[in-house]
């Protein structure tokens, strides 16, 4: 009986240790928010049409660490930006110099339409609301904004 009790206790301790390896999802996420604040601030302060696209890799890192209550907003934001990034890359267009009023030579109507649709989605109310929601969540839960 004693051996069974010790065995059961050992198994419970091992299970607790293993489940603890993943850490607290909120603590991991908040740590990541704080770790990326300065870099994200510099990226976004640089401005220009490509600032959000340059922030996409950081947004994806934060999305991967996000707790379930904010995952949907991160997904909305990163999908919109990712779709725009892919549309520009597929058309071999530099986001820093692209001007829809004077598209580069060789850009097809289909490519231009795809870029326009993706850019429209980045500026859409739902994408802007998602960005506001992830920033507000970081402020409320992590007590830190996404940028400093």
How does this model look, in words?
This protein is mainly α. It has one domain. Helices cover 73% and strands 0% of the residues. It is built from 6 helices and no strands. It has helices at residues 2-20, 25-45, 51-65, 71-90, 109-123, 125-142. The termini are far apart.
Strand-and-helix sequence, N→C? HHHHHH
Poorly predicted regions: 1-22
Q: Overall pLDDT, averaged? A: 86
Q: Helicity, in percent?
A: over 70%
Count the E strands. 0
Look at the helices and sheets and give the structural class.
Answer: mainly alpha
- Any idea what the shape is? elongated
Q: How much of the residues is beta strand, in percent?
A: under 5%
Distance between the termini: 59 Å
Supply Rg. 21 Å
- How many structural domains in the coordinates? 1
Helix count equals: 6
Largest sheet: none
What's this entry about, in short?
This protein is mostly helical and 148 residues long.
Topology:
Elements: H1 2-20, H2 25-45, H3 51-65, H4 71-90, H5 109-123, H6 125-142
Helix pairs in contact: 2-3, 3-4, 4-5, 4-6
Looking at this protein, list some descriptive labels.
single chain, 148 residues, mainly alpha, 6 helices, 0% strand, disordered N terminus
């Amino acid at each position: 009986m004693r051996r069974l009790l010790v065995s059961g206790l050992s198994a419970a301790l091992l299970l607790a240790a293993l489940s603890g390896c993943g850490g607290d999802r909120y603590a991991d996420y908040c740590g990541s928010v704080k770790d990326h604040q300065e870099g994200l601030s510099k990226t976004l302060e640089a401005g220009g049409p490509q600032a959000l696209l340059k922030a996409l890799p950081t947004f994806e890192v934060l999305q991967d660490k996000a707790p379930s209550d904010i995952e949907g907003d991160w997904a909305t934001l990163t999908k919109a930006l990712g779709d725009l990034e892919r549309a520009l890359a597929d058309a071999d267009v530099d986001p820093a110099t692209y001007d829809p009023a004077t598209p580069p030579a060789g850009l097809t109507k289909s490519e231009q339409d795809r870029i326009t649709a993706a850019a429209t989605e980045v500026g859409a109310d739902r994408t802007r609301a998602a960005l506001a929601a992830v920033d507000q969540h970081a402020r409320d839960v992590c007590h830190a904004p996404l940028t400093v």
